[in-house]
Amino acid sequence: MAGPMKMRATLGEGYTDIRVLMTHPMETGLRKDPDGKIVPLHFIQSVIVKVNGKTVVDGQLSQAVSRNPVFTFRVKGGAKGDKVEVSWLDNLGETNKTEAAVA
Amino acid sequence: MFASPSLRAFPALLAASLLSLTALPAAAQDAKKEIERYQRMINEDSPAELFALEGEELWKKPQGPNKVSLEKCDLGMGPGVLKSAYAHLPRYFKDADRVMDLETRLLYCMTTLQGRTKEEATKRVFGNENKPSEMESLSAYIATQSRGEPLTPGTSHPKEKEAYALGKALFFHRAGPWDFSCASCHGEDSRRIRMQELPVLYKPEFARPVMATWPAYRVSNSQFKTMQWRLNDCYRQMRMPEPTFASEATNALNLFLTTTAQGEPYRGPGTKR
Amino acid sequence: MNSSRRTSRRTVVLAALSAVLLKPFVALAAVWNKDAFGAKTAPDALKSLGVSGTAPSADVVIDAPEIAENGAVVPIEITSKVPGTKTILVVIDKNPFPLVGKFDFMEGALPFVKVNVKMGETSDVRVIAQAGGKNYQATKNIKVTIGGCGG
């Protein structure tokens, strides 16, 4: 069960600013737990940003993106009420997404 | 210091050492500027917001034998009033007859309102990178509701004055195997651990930005940490026994620090190294 | 799904359809580039992506602090002013696996991204903007006081 995800989409000077916070361990597979065991590789591989149902950004990530990733994306133009959706998929097949209307 | 062969090189050496002396402050200034830039950038859009979301759910969740949420908990501004509550803590509470910080007060509400035992409610007060504790999430949520409010801890009640005096005494009290006090690290200007500048916490100008930004998300361990944790961890780092959660000592120290920082507009939850 | 094949490859189509329904994400996203992300050197990663040569460009802007207090979270804000930028690549030379991100921008998106990355040690951070079949690069050295890969 993926942790909370939050997104804020606001209008800037001729663009829509999209800020998204994700909960994800982004484990590198190099870290040891308190018992000395390696914590397995577990990270978001793919992030998709859609505006009004159309994909605008397709991002591929490595395990080197920080734990609990935070992203900012920008889309040309935009208007209040536009529907923005950000979704992710990780290497274990888990997914999560969030939607917000441009404020 | 200078062996005779280098007497000939003396003017060059002197020039070189003077150069490095003048170069050092500029380089140190640049480093400080870049570190401030780092701190500013990590504070824009922080995972701390996600902990506040969790905290909101926990605040509204019926728990304990009484199957009641924390929504009627009085954090000092009235039952259930969250706006500016964090900024007004620590303070004296008549019903508990003691000075309490946020976490101590939450524990009180968990036991009195929700009917939970102290043992159960304090079983896991500090979380880890995979799962925050209840206290941590609740603190994130409640602190957010004090954004912009000036830090206004209790200062007039006799027990508040007592706690302040105790906190101040503890701050300067040397003990433990290293004979450390808080002031050992936080008591003198220009002290540093590696690249971190250590603020002189008994001086308002340094206490203010610190107390205005706790609790905070710490990027070094990806965890949301509170003042109870910070005080506990300082004692651990000084190789002293860790203080009991919500103890008189921790509340006294928290009150001393917050009073020293009073008036500062709260701008947490913060994001820190 | 090609409808003219439906009758002859019915079970295959149905299985594919259910895969699409169960994992809608997979069907829409670009395939994760295993070779590029698995490359242990920056040149190998770029080779896997078909990047043969890059030219330095002042139109690719990296806004990041020169010192990161902790390598676990290094904030990097990237803007490409190169017209027609379709992709931005982020490469951290000294990381165990240098390729950190590949962002494709479709119609409407601005070639801009702010992302927090992990750096194992002080390293050059390279950003490559791809536009009109050419690769434009900017580099920034970021000092890391405590590494952020192994915890």
Describe this structure in words.
The complex is a heterotrimer of chains A (103), B (273) and C (151). Chain A has 103 residues and is mainly β. Chain A has a single domain, classed as Immunoglobulin-like. Chain A contains no helices and 7 strands. Chain A has strands at 5-11, 15-22, 44-51, 54-61, 70-76, 83-90, 95-101. Chain A is elongated. The mean pLDDT of chain A is 95. Chain B is globular, with a radius of gyration of 22 Å. In chain B, a hairpin with a 4-residue loop joins strand 1 (91-93) and strand 2 (98-100). Chain B is built from 10 helices and 7 strands. The two termini of chain B are 41 Å apart. Chain B is mainly alpha-helical and 273 residues long. In chain B, 38% of the residues are buried. The radius of gyration of chain C is 19 Å and the shape is globular. Mean pLDDT of chain C is 87; it is low at 18-22. In chain C, strand 5 and strand 6 (99-105) form a beta hairpin. In chain C, strands 1, 3, 5, 6, 8 and 9 form a 6-stranded mixed β-sheet that branches. The A-C interface holds A 15, 26, 28, 30-32, 45-46, 48-49, 51, 54-67, 69-77, 87, 89, 93, 95 and C 23, 25-26, 28-30, 32-33, 37, 72-74, 77, 92, 95-97, 99-110, 112-119, 148-151.
